[in-house]
């Protein structure tokens, strides 16, 4: 019977082990957690951003450009429409004036800088004087038509003896200058015959020629004549310039708009038309000769590889527009046989090459647009049944989703760039995701061309994002179109085809259809026989040319560029002048995609140095390319506002004097024209009168020591008419040297107002002379500073500014002084800045002050000053607050910014980094999860994944449940594993065998189910089973044993006592433990009810508390239970076991532990053969080890240990429990541990040797091992063995533990 019972127990234990092992498998986990199984994958909707509709009406601002329009002249009206559209694109205030209203009122707005009129003949006579005054005062008269109106001959630059002959042979445009950027030396528009004024009509001493005709370099097609402070621009052609010529029309205005910044979109897109598409194994020229490759191999292995390399070189994100079939079918079924025909093997997976190319496009950061199911244009003439368009598009939608091509396309390119109103309607019906229609900027509207950057005229739910050029070889006509449009939009949209290389001249090549050949020169792709390079190098060459001219240009895909262009078109900008500055600023910026802005700005060579000095403080970055009489500046600002010096501020007296000279020149010109027409010389008398008056004035001037201002002024005026102003200054210098009075020297100010200083050296000399006689004159000091504030004069300027401060203590003087110090003596500026508080008074220099403090690492001052600058990036403010550890301010600064800029992902990435550094790991993780795919997100992902393993368990669980996509797979697995092991519900089997000497004393088992609640409290419900074997008493001659075991000697006498016999005890236990935390106390409590095989019941109770302090550890616990022996249960003796424990580290190298233990035993039952009283013993054990407390994979720890014990009884034979009246032992030992806590295997073994006043000497061997059989199933075992002659107890423990998946708690 005993044997059978033993076998049954062994079978039960084996079955439990098998169940535990297999329960670690995924199937068991799924069964235990069925809610974790995702039965359906969720399909993401196609990307279809909401298009922002806007009003195209211009703001009612004071105009910069006015156009006198003749509504009876169709050409005048067309030009009006072109100029108005140009100003609408560039946000330049524009106004039309009806020619009838002009003749009635002759009014030019005071804000106007450019006045345009097509033909002047309908202007009344009074118009001439009005316009001449406008030009003389600095305005620009723009005549975009050949002028044969003799009244305007003086302004246009005609000779006085001009015959006004017409040239009937000159054609085309040949640019001598960069009238459009990068086009100097280029010839284009060969089809134009100008019929303009012939070259011999013009006075080349007066005019500047920007362009001639192609066949006649003496025919000026674009010319400028400077008059006074202004100029006249004339397009000497009667040809009606068209949409493609808008760049020329725009440049004619821009000459008069120096220093006027205008916003641009700055987005260029390269479209890959018909890519991907069905591929074929045919070999065709010129690739057949160059590489001997089929079309399929060329496109996949050569063309696409080279295009990707170009993209990396120029940071291009292409828009690839696939067509799925070329069978020209317009009725169902719409199959994809051609697309799927050509296949490839990729990592063991067979798929169509075209599908692989689609995914490779996405993989490399490019956009997938849409070209069509096939290459049949969506026009009525090609689709007899338009409803089949929708059917074909629905097939595309299914193909797209099934093939995992990503989001549905939002940009569309019509096949052959043809589409009509019906086609657009059906396109939107079949593919609602389409938002951007990308046909042609030029062409005819009804065919799908002639699109503007506006909502489509045929479908108001699509925005037009048209293309201007195509092909790998960019000829001069294409460059003209590209640069023309880019000048006023900042957009270059271009398209190429993979098969462009195959369209070579050949009688058998019909692939071009009605269009021109795309490889008319027959070039190869990489190389061409007998010629340098091929199409690839040609395209590369132009990309380099373009990006060199415009290094800030951005090559974005159509999805990105379309939204930017839309945002640019929807924006409104205000223009104003204030305090000598011209200001352009965006309105309603909260509706814009971004607060930053790209700009173009024209500046002459004369003002280039001053403009660039301002740009250094205005723009984050700027560049320039040659344009007109100077440069076109490209600038990027952090704010959508631009403030720059107003270059059209003139003094009224100066303008009046200049106009008097212009009038004299004009009257002289008119007189000479009349003389030429009448054949008479009428000017001699007038000139003689002037000569005599000049002589009289000079005689008087030389005879008087004191200067008579009116006399000198009149003489100076006459001399200026003859361009002899410098002689007057020489006379004044000599006069002041002879008569150096204050009044004489100060006359130089008056003379400057009349004729101006001859040069900068003369100006400086005379202002210095004025300061010598009037050193405290505030206006003089300000004038000196304003005119000579250059690096070479910095010391003189500093002295002038200090002198100015002595006579003018106002804020402006202090402002100028500090500005000077900021530029040249930043350390001195710091001293002065300490005297002032940050305020709006210093807003213009706030940027420089901010950076000065930042460079000095005075981040508080830098941050304080940054409030008064619009040019300090949010990233810098955040960095300074972080360095100052002002984390609350940092968070508030970020939140304020992101409310206005919700799509500023770079700032979000930066804030995620700061959250990480601040220890706000969860916030960092959540913010990083919201970012789109980018380098910043990937960098964050790496750093956060490296640290997430060290976060609190509850943080890890929250992130796993709610933000899992940011985890790397291996980290997710590791964290999941760690959390499952820590907080996953588990089952556990614990078994212990104890012996007294070499005889069995007890077998104790506990099988439990352990679960965590929402607060991570651990609850344990366990079933227990114990076996207690009879003990040997040394005081009587009774040997007690379990009758089931037949291992006794045959002559052994068996005497069974009623309180010392084999006992089985069954129990159920509940235990509670609060969550572990390093900075909080951990406590636990348990209760157990038991019954033995004699129907006797027992209880157990336990409680404990502990806390970790860095490496130190303290604990206290008490347990109440029946004495764990057979007689202990029979006698109903309860054991109260109390332990106090403290572990501390001393000098970082020594670990000292002290344990104080007490054992209290209740009195035994009186009706037994051996009675014990209430007993107690107390012991204290001190252990000192050489251990620094650091976890190492392999570690030895030597130790010393000593223990002292005092008891109330001597029960050294262990019956019914063991106790000594006193005991003292001490010794040394060595501990070795291998493996870390997180490892699948770790063990610890220990051996010690003791001297003992009870047993003389003894050895103790102990150890533990933990081995993870599977990820979540572990085997644990331990032992403690003594070697001594007297009573001793040995213990062996073993068990299994399996952890289940943790229940996920998702955010609501």
Automatic annotation (TrEMBL):
Please state what the protein is called.
DUF2194 domain-containing protein
Tell me which species this is from.
Flavobacterium piscinae
Under PROSITE patterns, the record lists: PROKAR_LIPOPROTEIN
| Gene3D superfamilies (alphabetical) | Tetratricopeptide repeat domain (1.25.40.10)
Q: Which BP terms from GO are recorded?
A: carbohydrate metabolic process
Q: Where is the signal peptide?
A: none
**Record's InterPro entries?**
DUF2194, Glyco_hydro/deAcase_b/a-brl, TPR-like_helical_dom_sf
Q: Which Pfam families match?
A: DUF2194
